[in-house]
Amino acid sequence: MTKPIKRIAVCTGGGDAPGLNAVIQSVMIAADNLGWQCYGIRDGFNGIMFPERYPEGGVYRLTRDKVRGIGHLGGTVLGTTNKGNPLHFPVNMPDGSIREIDRSDELLTYFATHEIDALVSIGGDGSLTIADALHQKGLKVVGVPKTIDNDLDKTYTTFGFDTAVGFATECLDRLHSTAESHQRVMVVEVMGRYAGWIALHAGIAGNAHAILIPEISFDIEKVAAKIREREASGHVYSIVVAEGATPKDGALDVVAAAEVGHAERLGGIGEHVAHDLGISTGKETRVVVLGHLLRGGSPTSFDRLAALRFGAGAVRALEAGHSGVMVSLGVSGVSYVALEEVAGRMRNVPLEGDTLQTGRDLGISFGD
């Protein structure tokens, strides 16, 4: 007979995203309505693995008072981290080297000792991979997909994406006027890793003239040709949006070396593109890096609703006896997908998709 759930925990891992607090709020209230207690883990799993850092408690009881009014706030009240993966935890050795060990059994011991019956893990690919490993070791786990990049497989969308695209689009709107006034080429670098969803959606919505995404290797001369074409027709400025893009010759390396226990970072493509376009076109170029501005701020109504649906769906999954699943938001509603089908997989922009084709139909250059 399956042990009934009385206590659950919730944690947020990886980069922050608008809507995290709405998920936490939804999980807590839905659990409370079932008579369950809900506990929040600080900073991913650090609240358990480093209790000495939290004199007020690395794991604490969430109540309606503690989650009241947080749904519209950006960030996460629990804190988050993309360091200290418990499956590959970095440890300093006596000889000065760094060794990675598996500390996941410590988490299982903590849950058992404190009679926490299940975990709702909110995060991206890395967090969901950890969640799947904990499930494989016997813990009841439900994952909630989180990434502004919208690159997680098996879900129609992730919360935070709509907010990021909306802000990037607003920035592009503002840049049009200053680019035209000074007759410049503006290169806008948006946040992302290896999928171009933000660049594509914001670029099309913000009337960019070229969009460079990782799914399509670009030829800088073709982008320059687009700019010269516009100039010949009397259009004195151009907007180029780039994210994680690479040239056809593969000569650029814009991935920073990863620290042990830390995800590798992208950055710098905007400067490379602007430099090369300046040489090729002879036009003055400027770079705007939106970076972490895309992560901050209040979530849009779409992202708030999506986040609330994800949180309530996670609790419903546990109530129904599910474990080792991720809540998936589809066109027709909420469903559940096995974590093992999601962990380690990425959803790229489909080259034959309608959105990308719309960009081509509008005359946007993708550098190919």
Explain what this protein looks like in three dimensions.
By secondary structure, this protein is an alpha/beta fold. It has two domains: 7-159 and 299-341, 3-Layer(aba) Sandwich (Rossmann fold), CATH 3.40.50; 164-295, Rossmann fold. Helices cover 35% and strands 19% of the residues. It has eleven helices and 15 strands. It has helices spanning 20-33, 46-49, 64-67, 104-113, 125-136, 161-182, 197-205, 220-232, 269-281, 301-319, 354-361, and strands at 7-12, 37-41, 59-62, 89-92, 98-101, 118-123, 140-145, 185-189, 210-212, 238-242, 255-256, 265-266, 285-289, 325-330, 333-338. The strands form four sheets. It has a seven-stranded mixed sheet with strand order 3-2-1-6-7-14-15, sandwiched between helices. Strand 4 and strand 5 (98-101) form a beta hairpin. Helix 8 (220-232) crosses helix 9. The protein is elongated and about 70 Å long. The termini are far apart. The model is unreliable at 255-263 (pLDDT under 50).
Question: What fold name goes in the CATH topology slot of the largest domain?
Answer: Rossmann fold
Number of helices: 11
Backbone structural class: alpha/beta
Order of helices and strands: EHEHEHEEHEHEHEHEHEEEHEHEEH
Under CATH at level 1, the class of the largest domain stands as: Alpha Beta
**Can you summarize the main beta sheet?**
7 strands, mixed
Number of domains: 2
The outline comes out as elongated
Distance between the termini: 59 Å
Low-pLDDT residue spans: 255-263
